[in-house]
Write a structure and sequence with these properties.
This protein is an alpha+beta fold. It is about 25% helix and about 30% strand. Strands 20, 21, 25, 26, 27, 28, 31, 32, 33 and 34 form a 10-stranded mixed sheet that branches. Strands 35-40-41-42-49-44-45-46 form an 8-stranded antiparallel sheet, sandwiched between helices. Strands 2, 4, 5, 6, 8 and 9 form a 6-stranded mixed sheet that branches. It is globular and about 90 Å long. The structure holds beta-D-glucopyranose.
Length: about 950
């Protein structure tokens, strides 16, 4: 890959003062208003402050290795209720010196905080392990017991043998490890269930374990427990049901107690509860509450609930005090024993769905008497919180829409059969003054919307009657990307919103219409982008297990996971989500275990594909390059993905030391490649199939093109973009994922960049220019009853290219889990600066560059225990090149100048100089004439 300087003349037209005035302005992120602008500016300055910080802190008080930080177990911080018998640990290292690595570690796991504080790892003391593993370190101590909490800490030795202090203690707690640990039975019969119990002594510890499908809400002594909503995540219920564990110690007390559970239908389309509460009393006794037919049941205020259609909540049916002891439930019936779902109970070990943010509406309009339409200013997932006062029995209806028409009314053509509407029926004024405001949030539904239409409101609502509650899987942000070109920041903003609003326990295609499915094609193209922007490790660990759960004995998997829409077998470009997400888990997090656990299933999947490709060409296809402008033959797309899958399996086999398999799949890959070229390549013309961008990008990206044809194929691709389509994409979402990296691969990042900043149809910028606040399903700006969601994540795959190419944050070929990093920014002429940071599994990786005539600066951060090749680009005709790192010269007279701590070597390439560095923060500045 070569850095690209598209136009020297263009650059020369700009004076140096013009250029420097463009450097590092606070990004003015589009489509955000008011406090969102302020928060964008604040995060910009915070980001700059973070980037400016020398890491590690040179001259800070602590010399040598600092205590390991950010301790995680199974990718989670202090997880409660896990059911992995050999959980894996990860920590982040810090050091006052550059170029540091871990030479050894010691992990202590204790059964009590006290033992740990005495450095007594009574469950596991790894001893001093000579190893540079600081992630994926598997527990290897005594068998872990159901329901027990374990405390752990770690210390590390640096490369010179100096030991760090021990980390702060962390913990993890086991869930229910065996089916026989589950004493409660599945009950149901109504949507509100309750029980009471008495405790003879005060409470030392209380844990609630709950599996409630479709969705549950748990209450203990009048308190709603936990911050999850729409829990548990959707799974293939016949195979697996997720349960959650809550620490309810503060809510359970000596004497009388009550438990209440509300159940929603969710994706289960029925209701069932399995529950138990384990209490340790002060006198040492153990007490257990189980779900059984002694519980009471009735249908409560949730009159109806459906993911697609919304909820009707009649507050007149509330039973105040139902979740407290002493409540008179004599009119309630008894809970029924129900079969419940057949799947095994598994711990939910990922960030749950949460109500994570609140949006204040931008405006309220009344297009017709009694009809009020709120504009949230942002297409979002979740619901509207309603604040209302009025007569008992008044019904306020909220209907949700992504679009509004010019007359101010909502337009719901694109959400198809989803009724997406919530109705709240008021309980009416209380006896005391001040009790009259009623606040409603739905319990068991969510919507994708920007506009809320309110009807039936008693009196006139105000802007304060509605708040947007943003709901999705609460994955932590780990990446930030900003650039001097405003449109890129606006696109990045759309990518993040579209990605988050499509994480609901599974990655979904959309969040609004009668679909919201785990479409695997959408999942495979977005996975890399998602991992650069958010901490997806636990989320995808769960999703890969979901995929395995749908696999049949013949190896087939399905278009959607869980399987509700689409076909079995999956379209090959959709099925690729299985090998590819495993592969990305290895790449991004160094997760070898996911490769081990899925190897047999992946092999079965690939063998199934092979059985459908007797002549080494896999032809079956349903969707091909979905939503493309120029159609590419589906069989070319399927066959290319077949090759991809075989290649991934070959590489996984090699990593796992299965050399015979690796060789066999290498051979198969060669055969598939040859057959692909025989079938689709016109060797005379140097074109594939009908010569679309997708056909050429797939072939180039996957390395399918014979060497002698590469130039021709690359030429056809770039001609098609530049001349036939005036620098526009014509691909669908499958093609565009590979188009951008393929262009970078052939040295045309400049052209990829022009596509990225294009603002006319079809382009990402066109969406921005037309007011999109999330990415559309189609390149077209469409409305009406046909397929045109305004919140699909899949075109956001370009976000990975922002990080990889524009910011240059990459893994080395052997760098899984960011052990070896390659920083190689594509410095395109039109950009003056780019700045990106990713909190990787090993710590912060950042890359920020500026470019002005005769000078390039590149600041990078490499975590302790990692190293990097840092490729500093130079302008092609530049001579007398000098590179400084901080105050020191590290390159002069075409030679590396040694001596700068952490910089161990350098070599010149055609248009760049590559420095080898260890951990630390580096500020390179290349100048020349
Ligand atoms: C979804 C897509 C999905 C496709 C399969 C659509 O309805 O919304 O994103 O991948 O079906 O072709």
């Amino acid at each position: 890959m070569k850095p690209t300087f598209v136009s020297r003349t263009q650059r020369k037209r700009m004076s140096s003062s013009q250029v420097s005035s463009l450097r590092f302005p606070p990004p003015n992120i589009g489509n955000c208003r008011g406090n969102r602008i302020i928060s964008a500016i604040i995060s910009w300055f915070v980001l700059q402050a973070v980037i400016a910080l020398p890491v590690p802190l040179a001259g800070s008080a602590m010399a040598g290795p600092a205590a390991p930080a950010n301790l995680r177990c199974q990718y989670l911080t202090n997880p409660l209720g896990i059911d992995v018998t050999q959980p894996r640990f990860a920590w982040v290292l810090e050091h006052s010196e550059r170029g540091e690595t871990q030479s050894a570690y010691q992990v202590l796991v204790a059964t009590s905080a006290e033992n740990l504080s005495h450095d007594h790892g009574d469950a596991w003391d790894s001893g001093k392990m000579a190893s540079d593993d600081s992630t994926q370190v598997a527990y290897a101590g005594k068998a872990l017991e159901s329901g027990h909490r374990y405390y752990w800490k770690v210390r590390a030795w640096d490369k010179g043998g100096a030991a760090s202090p021990y980390s702060h203690p962390a913990w993890f707690e086991m869930g229910l490890l065996s089916p026989s640990d589950w004493k409660g039975e599945w009950i149901g019969g109504a949507n509100q269930l309750r029980t009471e119990f008495k405790l003879a002594d005060s409470v030392m510890l209380a844990r609630a374990t709950i599996a409630g499908v479709g969705y549950y809400e748990l209450h203990v002594n009048g308190v709603r427990i936990g911050s999850s909503v729409l829990d548990p995540a959707w799974t293939t219920y016949e195979k697996r049901v997720l349960y959650a564990t809550y620490d309810v110690t503060p809510y359970v007390q000596g004497g009388a107690n009550a438990i209440g559970v509300m159940l929603g239908q969710g994706w289960f389309a029925s209701r069932a509860l399995r529950f138990q509460l384990d209490v340790e009393l002060a006198d040492g006794r153990h007490f257990q509450v189980q779900s059984n037919t002694s519980w009471k049941a009735r249908n409560g205020p949730v009159v109806s609930d459906s993911v697609y259609n919304g909820e009707i909540y009649d507050a007149r049916l509330e039973a105040p005090g139902w979740d407290r002891s002493g409540f008179d439930d004599s009119a309630w019936s008894t809970a029924q024993s129900v079969p419940g779902p057949q799947g095994v109970l598994s711990a939910e070990m990922m960030p749950p769905i949460r109500d994570v943010d609140t949006l204040v509406p931008l405006s309220m309009r009344s297009p017709r008497p009694g009809v009020y339409v709120y504009d949230m200013g942002q297409n979002m997932s979740g619901w509207a919180e309603l604040r209302v006062r009025g007569p008992r029995g008044a019904a306020v209806k909220m209907r949700f829409a992504e679009l509004a028409d010019d007359d101010g009314t909502i337009n719901r053509d694109d959400i198809r059969a989803a009724k997406a509407s919530d109705t709240y029926i008021l309980r009416g004024p209380g006896i005391l003054r001040g009790e009259d405001d009623e606040v409603y949030n739905p319990h068991f539904t969510y919507h994708g919307f920007r506009y809320v239409e309110v009807t039936g409101y008693p009196g006139t609502p105000s802007l304060d009657s509605i708040r947007g509650r943003v709901v999705h899987s609460a994955v932590a942000p780990v990446g930030s990307f900003v650039a001097s070109k405003q449109i890129l920041n606006q696109i990045q903003r759309l990518i993040r919103w579209s990605q988050l609003t499509n994480l609901f326990g599974i990655p979904t295609d959309c969040d609004q219409r009668d679909e919201r499915q785990g479409w695997m094609g959408d999942a495979q193209v977005t996975a890399e982008e998602a991992m650069m922007n958010f901490d997806m490790a636990a989320f995808y660990t769960n999703f890969v297990r979901d995929i395995r759960d749908v696999q049949a004995s013949d190896g087939t998997i399905t278009d959607t996971v869980p399987h509700r829409y689409g076909s079995r077998p999956a379209d090959p470009a959709w099925g690729t989500a299985f090998p590819l997400i495993c592969w990305h888990m290895w790449q991004q997090y160094g997760d070898r275990r996911i490769l081990e656990e899925n190897y047999d299933s992946l092999k079965k999947y690939v063998e199934f594909l092979r059985s459908r490709a007797p002549d080494n060409v896999l032809r079956y296809s349903y969707y091909g390059d979905w939503v493309a402008i120029d159609h590419t033959p589906g069989e070319l797309v399927s066959d290319a993905y077949y090759y991809y899958d075989v290649e991934i399996l070959r590489d996984i086999a090699a990593i796992l030391g299965k050399s015979a398999d690796s060789q066999a799949y290498a051979q198969l890959a060669d055969q598939v490649r040859a057959a692909f070229n025989q079938t689709f390549l016109d060797t005379k013309a140097g074109t594939y199939a009908n010569g679309t961008q997708t056909a050429h990008a797939l072939a180039l990206f996957l390395g399918l093109v014979p060497n002698e044809q590469r130039g021709a194929v690359a030429g056809h691709l770039t001609d098609d973009i530049s001349y036939a389509h005036n620098t526009h994409v014509t691909t669908g979402f499958i093609g565009v994922k590979v188009l951008m990296p393929a262009l970078t691969e052939i040295g045309r990042s400049d052209l990829a960049y022009e596509l990225a900043v294009q603002t006319t149809y079809p382009s990402w910028g066109y969406m921005v220019e037309n007011g999109a606040t999330t990415l559309w399903e189609l390149w077209e700006n469409k409305r009406g009853p046909s397929m045109n969601s305004h919140d699909h994540a899949m075109f956001g795959s370009v976000g990975a290219w922002f990080y990889n190419a524009l910011a240059g944050i990459n893994l080395s070929a052997d760098g899984a889990g960011y052990r070896h990093i390659r920083i190689e920014p594509q410095v395109v002429e039109d950009l003056h600066w780019v700045s990106a940071t990713v909190e990787t599994i090993r710590g912060t990786v950042s890359s920020s560059w500026t470019h002005s005539p005769g000078e390039i600066t590149l600041d990078v951060t490499i975590p302790v225990n990692s190293d990097a090749k840092v490729v500093v680009p130079k302008e092609e005709e530049m001579t007398a090149v000098t590179v400084r790192e901080g105050d020191r010269i590290v390159w002069q007279n075409d030679e590396f100048v040694p001596g700068d701590p952490g910089v161990t070597g350098a070599s010149a390439g055609h248009g760049d100089i590559t420095f080898e560095v260890g951990s630390g923060h580096y500020a390179f500045r290349l100048t020349g004439e």
